[in-house]
Amino acid sequence: MIKTERIEQIQDYIFQQQTVSLDELVEVFEVSKNTIRRDIQQLVERGKIKKVYGGVAVNHATLKSFNERQTKNQLEKISIAKAAADLIQDGDIIYVDSGTTTLEMVEFIKDKQVTIITNNLDFIFNSFPYENLKVISTGGVFDRKTKSFVSLKNMDLLRSYNINKAFMASTGITIENGVTHSSPHESEIKQAVVQKSAEIYLLVDHIKFGRYALMTYCDLEDVDCIITNKSPGEEYQHFTKKHGIELIISS
Q1: For residue 233, what are the contacts with CB-CB under 8 A and spacing of at least 6?
Q2: Residue 126 in 3-state DSSP?
Q3: pLDDT of 80-90, one tens digit each?
Q4: 154: which DSSP letter?
Q5: CA gyration radius, the chain
Q6: Which residues fall within 8 angstroms of residue 157, CB to CB, at 6 or more apart?
Q7: 133-137 vs 141-143, strand pairing mode
């Protein structure tokens, strides 16, 4: 991996985790501590990352524009979630991935008879008022930063579920690197879900195309349907047609 790519991935990882130790960065990116220190210094000079005792953290005081973009995309996320929910039928057994877009699906499936498997704590909590939604938690170690359960001890239990449709989130997607995310702790869960599910639905807003994060959990051609809010570039349209991937543009 070239230096500029690594630094961008380190930044994405810190944004995802909020606070990270230097030792964790060394382990995740498989470089020396001196290399991490040099990379971190470049990020600190950008003003978006600050040093804390034993590691680094997001400098929230300088990330107003980043947070504003997250809020600005909320309507797009809701429209994507609604389009995804329209594909769910009574009796389906679905997996709902952790993510801000997949979380919005609760409102649009609250009247359906569905079995939901998820590692997303907020999704579990928001589903609580609706007795028709049968929710199964993956369990495991709870990651407070992502509000999701990770590092399952009994992965065979997850693999034993017969999942009709999996609704997956992603930090970024590219044709070369596939479907990626920033947390290595969730990789095994995501990979197991993709392998076990009959149909894979990927929920991503338009800014995720052409971007990639630290971990690849499946190839893009493994996806059955991409749900987004704007038509992607021609290369992605060509790729989806070539591989029989349905492309749904939410309104």
Answers
A1: 209, 210
A2: helix
A3: 999 999 999 99
A4: -
A5: 18
A6: none
A7: unpaired
